[in-house]
Amino acid sequence: QVQLVESGGGLVQAGGSLRLSCAASGGIFNINVMGWHRQAPGKQRELVAAITTGGSTTYADSVKGRFTISRDAAKNTVYLQMNSLKPEDTAVYYCNADGSYRSSSGYRRAFDQWGQGTQVTVSS
Question: How does pLDDT run across 8-51, given as a tens digit for each residue?
Fold first, then answer.
């Protein structure tokens, strides 16, 4: 069973910075894409940033130039460095990853897993 554990959320003033981390574990063979999504109260979950195995990245227009996603493949960990935070960045941030893992029966299975979410609050 693959698990994603997030950390690094919190309360910060506008203009400040936070760094989120998400570590994947559980018999993983490979991870294709790791990404961060967020959901603000009353709004749909949206993609913030994603990174592929090869290092290609994509960002939401609203965070380009302020957020940076990176990945440590050896640790199955993805990071989101968030700078110049704005009150509108306030949301629960969720990590997502897809790939393959070794199941309890020993077979290779695909997974698409989400973390539990971490709150980011930016005060004005």
Answer: 999 999 999 999 999 999 999 999 999 999 999 999 999 999 99
Residue 26 corresponds to which amino acid?
G
In contact, 41 and 63? CB cutoff 8 Å = no
d(Cα 64, Cα 110) in Å, to the nearest integer? 31
At residue 42, the 3 state secondary structure works out as coil
Instruction: Give me Rg for the CA atoms of the chain.
Output: 15
b/e 83-97 (16+ beta carbons within 10 angstroms → b): eebeeebbbbbbbbb
What residues contact residue 4 under an 8 Å CB cut-off, 6+ apart?
A: 22, 23, 24, 95, 96, 97, 113, 114, 115, 116
